[in-house]
Amino acid sequence: MRLLSLGISSFILGLVLVLASPVKANTDMSAVLERMDEIIAEMQVLRTEFAVLSKQVGTTVSTPAVLGVQTTAGGFSESLEYGVTNDDISYIQKLLATDPEIYPEAIVSGFFGPKTQEAIRKLQTRFNLDPVGVIGPATRTILETFKKAFPTGAFPDGVLKQVPQVQGASTSITPVQSPVTRPTFSDNSNPFYSIEGEIDRGEAEVRVEYKNGKTSRIIVDGDDEGEVAKNIAKRTGQSVAHVLAVLDLGNEKPSNGGDEDDAEEAIEDAEDAIDDADEAIDEAKDDDEDIDDAEDMLDEAEEYLEEAEDAFDDEDYEQAISKAKKAKSKAKDAEDAIGGKSSRKGDSDDIDEIRVDIVGKDEAEVKVEYDDGSEYEFGLEEDKEDEIIEEIADELDMDEDDVEDLIEFDYGDVEEINVDVDEDADEATVKVEYESGVTRRFDIEAGSESSMIKDIAKEIDEDEDDVEDWTNFDYL
């Protein structure tokens, strides 16, 4: 506890020095405030990690609680703070590099930079610590246990799967599954009541509830809790420590990714379509009609149905729905191909329009409308325009340029638009977030906000007034 007090005291001293330092007229106050925020966040990390460590091994554990303090033989003697360069950091990087899941870059430079910080976050996640990227006492104890077990840095395969047992060591920490204690605040400074959501494919959709009753729903980038917290703090203008205190990314989506009833219904529809096609083919065979193409298409439909049923058994309902839709579509194609007739695909001269509804992440529904009023529908497991055009061209046996001329995309309702403006490069990156969960990105020329709103409205085919209401500008 004495060492913990020293650690906290050192951070308080740093905070005092930041506040007491004379600020020149040209000093960027935002940098000072950002450092203050970092100091507060690191104090919370120290308090949190020490609490975790105490629960796992008891309060009698002797462990360094001050980043950069001298330690016992077999441990680290140099600073482990972000931004430093020394041999202890090199050792830690070599250890992290043994596991590509934790440190795929495997750079051993001795410099504690962003890539090493990200690897530390992943290590903390593995051992059920808050993934904040700061080497606090619990994380340091884990790292020093490896140092004592492998002082020369000769690591066996899979060394990071579990902390080694070290003879004579006062403790050994192993991965646990129970949640760790979150940072807490003794005052009412935290404006958040709760932040809940989930991480999915590099993005987190969260619901933010403030103590004043206000709520908002935002989507931020991030592959782990630490990165998500940082981006939420940036978007809300609050501290990372306040975000971490209430952030809950544990309400995961059901592993199936879809609705069981919808999947079951989609499979039944596909079975009905296949039965209808099979009956039509039998009748055509009795009438000596050409059924070769139809039978080939029916075989494809049955393969898709089998895949849909397998996915359903695995409780992957999203995949089951997608495969079932393809089975139904192929079965209809089979009926239309009886007698050697076209399967309604045709060439571009026969097509009036191709409509694509982006209904969710990696999910699109395509409807091809022909001049004669007939339609051809099928589903795709894509939500990016280029990939969709390519797959439609393959499906319809058409040139991609012809598809692009005929296609119309519908993403549904817009939820929010965020624009990162790089005035030096005269360029702005636009990220349009839809209620379906799909995010669309594109670049425009930087200019006045009114001109950029006009360009965005034209690109997404929406009213300028609506675009203005949805858009947030961030100047880099």
Walkthrough of the structure:
- The chain is an alpha/beta fold.
- The protein has four domains: 2-161, Orthogonal Bundle (Muramoyl-pentapeptide Carboxypeptidase, domain 1), CATH 1.10.101; 192-248, no CATH class; 260-396, no CATH class; 414-475.
- The protein has helices at 2-20, 29-57, 87-96, 114-126, 137-149, 225-236, 240-246, 260-286, 292-313, 317-336, 385-396, 400-406, 449-460, 464-470; strands at 192-200, 203-210, 215-221, 247-248, 351-360, 363-370, 375-380, 407-410, 414-422, 427-434, 439-445, 471-475.
- α8 runs parallel beside α10 (317-336) and α9 packs antiparallel against α10 (317-336).
- It starts with a helix and ends with a strand.
- Mean pLDDT is 76; it is low at 1-8, 23-27, 55-73, 168-187 and 251-258.
The DSSP helix count reads 14
Counting DSSP E segments of at least 2 residues, the number of strands comes to 12
Biggest beta-sheet profile: 4 strands, mixed
- CA(first)-CA(last) distance: 43 Å
Shape: globular
Strand arrangement in the largest pleated sheet: 3-2-1-4
Q: What's the architecture of the largest domain, going by CATH?
A: Orthogonal Bundle
CATH superfamily of the largest domain: PGBD-like superfamily/PGBD
Secondary structure: helix percent = 40-55%
Estimated radius of gyration: 29 Å
Query: What is the overall pLDDT average?
Result: 76
- Runs in which pLDDT lies below 50 for 5 or more consecutive residues are 1-8, 23-27, 55-73, 168-187, 251-258
CATH class of the largest domain: Mainly Alpha
Task: Estimate what percentage of residues fall within beta strands.
Answer: 15-25%
Whole-number tally of structural domains: 4
**Class from secondary-structure proportions:** alpha/beta
CATH topology of the largest domain: Muramoyl-pentapeptide Carboxypeptidase, domain 1
Q: SSE string, helix = H, strand = E?
A: HHHHHEEEHHEHHHEEEHHEEEEHHE
